[in-house]
Amino acid sequence: MRCGLLGEKLGHSYSPQIHACLGDYSYDLIEVAPEKLGEFLKNGDFSGLNVTIPYKKAVIPYCAELTPIARRLGAVNTLVRQPDGSLLGHNTDYFGFTAMVRRSRLDVAGKKCLVLGSGGASATAQAALEELGARIVVISRSGPDNYGNLDRHSDAAVIVNATPVGMYPKTEAAPMRLDAFPALEGVLDLIYNPARTRLLQEAEDRGLVAVNGLWMLVAQAKESAQWFLGREISDGAIGTIYGKLRRQMENIVLIGMPGAGKSTLAAILAARTGLEAVDADELVEKMAEMPIPGIFEQEGEAGFRAWETKALEALGKERGKILATGGGCVTRTENRALLRQNGQVFWIRRDVSSLPKEGRPLSLAGNLAEMERVRSPLYHAFADFTIDNNGPIPQAVDQILNIWEEST
């Protein structure tokens, strides 16, 4: 059985990895030029396909039959070759988004939900929310409800981002701020790269439910596999695959005072997980083309911090890394979002009396106890979890891994 993902130009995709966990069939990335689409759909050697932009509507004329949800949405993301050679068109994004809402545990019935965007993803979200009993308002750039009159929707309980704003590589962008929504309960963002968009980070900071699109991605793939195979697959597979992907995609970020053991822990964590360990200070030196003491000598601490932020901007967009940061990265608030976008942040704590000073310009020049007093609130603000590293190193490693595995 040959299956795959059909598109015009396909970059990196997690679909082959997901489908490898769902059934014993080959799954390829299949790029087809627009002028060859009809020929491929009629004569191509495949049993089932997922369909992505720009072909979700273009494949419809080649389908002998559409399922009710595909007809309702006017879009197809799953094709199944029937015994007579004809094509059945279905849409599994609806199931995927519904699963995402249920995963969030948000009760949307009777509540106002703002759906950002008016494209195909928005139509899917609207249909699913309508079925769940929500009151839907579509926010677009030029429609009657737009980003210029959001104040009229201050009673919104849920916001769904169905736009690409905030997606990699432009991860610094956000479609809106959440200040105007005192009744807000949660944000659902269909983006899954980065894991935490700026919009989701703001929601988390406000103590709101914040869910990205990874669960939807896996759920829709699960339903596609059912159509390919012609049999049911337990919904439990969604959680299993989701956790596996998160452990491969998200960074483990280590912050803490100079000499707290971040680099040592990173090396051991890399060996235990198979992920690559990356040292932010090493990238700073590479980018600046000089050692850190030289940067301090020539440009001062302000110059070093500017280089550090550039390094973290690049590293924060990476996925599946163990990232050891410099002790003072928390002194620039903009670094927080950079580190958190794809990572879980662990504050590594060690008693000041045990911190080495050699090779650390600020540690040699200043009072470490005072430095810790000033930085501790900043570490706390950056971190998702705190790890005590005053005992055996393996004990701290186990703590991190236990938290990481449980949280994913």
Describe the structure.
The protein is α/β, with parallel strands linked by helices and 408 residues long. The protein has 3 domains: 2-91 and 217-245, Rossmann fold (3-Layer(aba) Sandwich); 95-212, 3-Layer(aba) Sandwich (Rossmann fold); 250-407, 3-Layer(aba) Sandwich (Rossmann fold), CATH 3.40.50. The protein contains 15 helices and 16 strands. It has helices spanning 15-20, 37-43, 68-73, 93-104, 120-131, 198-205, 214-229, 236-249, 262-273, 280-288, 292-316, 334-340, 361-365, 368-382, 393-407, and strands at residues 2-7, 26-31, 48-51, 65-66, 78-81, 87-90, 112-116, 135-139, 158-161, 186-189, 209-211, 251-255, 276-279, 321-324, 343-349, 385-388. The strands form 3 sheets. Strands 2-1-3-5-6-4 form a 6-stranded mixed beta sheet. Strands 8-7-9-10-11 form a 5-stranded parallel beta sheet, with helices on both faces. The protein has a 5-stranded parallel beta sheet with strand order 13-14-12-15-16, sandwiched between helices. Strand 7, helix 5 and strand 8 (135-139) form a beta-alpha-beta unit. Helix 9 packs across helix 15. The longest helix is centred in the last third of the chain and has 25 residues, at 292-316. The model has no long low-confidence stretch (mean pLDDT 95).
